[in-house]
Amino acid sequence: MFVYTLALFSVVLYLGLRYVYSYWARQGFPHLRPEIPYGNLRALAEKRESFGVAVNELYARSTERLLGVYLFFRPAILVRDAHLAKRILVADFQHFHDRGVFCDEHRDPMSANLFALPGARWKRLRAKLTPTFTSGQLRQMMPTFLDVSEKLLAELEPLAAEGRVVDMRDISSRYVLDVIATVFFGFETHCLRDPNDPFVEPLRDLNNPNSFVNNIRSAGVFVCPGLLKLTGLSSLPPGMRQFATEVVTHQIEHRERHPQQRRKDFIQLLIDLRREANGQDALTIAQCAANVFLFYVAGADTSTGVISFTLHELTHNGEALAKARQEIDHVLERHGGVISYESLQELAYLDLCVKETLRKYPGLPILNRVCTEDYPVPGAADVVIRAGTQVIIPLLGICMDEKYFPEPEVYMPERFDEQTPNYDPDAYYPFGLGPRNCIGLRQGIMLSKIGLVLMLSRFDFEATVPRKVRFEPANVTLTPDGGLPMKITVRGDRAKVQL
Fold first, then answer.
1. Angstrom distance (rounded) from CA 326 to CA 383
2. Which residues form a coiled coil (predicted)?
3. Residue 66 pairs with which residues in a beta bridge?
4. Residue 353 annotated as binding?
5. For the chain, what are the domain ranges?
6. In this predicted model, what pLDDT tens digit does every residue of 100-140 receive, in sequence order?
């Protein structure tokens, strides 16, 4: 009897999956043929590719403007037209105002952050947090950024004096985490000095590519939220969830009891927002923890990537390195060796380098959206994206398409020169566009530029690995497999930077 029951269950499951995987065929929509039970993400499930590379390969397998794919069990549309993608993000935002990623405010409060919240809840929270990322607030944060930069120099000076080979991905990550701890969490850490600082461990655990459960979590958050609902897993490992909640709760409760102990950091800005609301739709501590966590993870990955990938590319491009370094030296000389908000604005070529880095290595290789209202596709007769359909904009695929970016494999900062642009500006949006673009993009860029200015003005870097980067498999972000080791030495003609 058991054997017959098992056989019947297997047949029903198989037929059910066949039905799920016939969705695009039943719709008469151009699509890639799926494989049971992977959909079109077998390489990701078998941990042969990172998520960004796996989706990029789907992009390369078709010439269709819109392409039906299966993200495991979830039908989705891959938008292969950069101009249509921009329209979805900006002009037609009302049809695509939600991301469609996992968010369960009641069962998993840490998932209810600014990135994931839908509809009106996202709009209200975005309005509350936007004032914390103005130019004025960034100027106030500059002293904090520069204080942490002293730790970076202290860490690198002896390594450079010995001509050591060091993983600049790891160094950059710990530098960024020291800044984030101060700016967002409101306390000092020693991540640069101690690779095993308690502030490092939760992020290391979260990004562990060898954790099967973490891989399920990542897939559930970004690709198929039903996986988390089906398995009952939370979006974060228990250690990360407990860490963020305890730290934020302690900081907020302590400062609300002692209002005289003010700091110019993100926690203080959240406290002020709670006080100004005066009980009227005020941010809860759980909401504060969820959003501080968001900037902990997103800020760490993005800024770390900009710094380390820029250094990696410059070590393979001597002409670009010389231009960037010459500009940095001249700007510092004009400002008496002082890094300031104003001096950073003058680094035009370094800005081009950062833009080119973000083209080749976007912080998130895809943008998620879900259609919230039936959308007749412009320029496509009778094609309608139905409400509830997941839409994927493959940033990595678009940015590596020679149709939009000539010679995409070449690191070419000059392509972004406003006088002689060599790219399609409607195809470049590494931080997203429209109302749901990255709220902290200017802060992330400023932090990255400070780190690059400090290092390029003081040290020489020499590549020890090939230019072509192999990414860690099964990871959502573009994380280099094995890090980015470089030989670091002291510049013989190094500029003097005053902090």
1. 52
2. none
3. 79
4. no
5. 81-490
6. 998 888 888 888 899 999 988 899 889 888 877 888 878 88
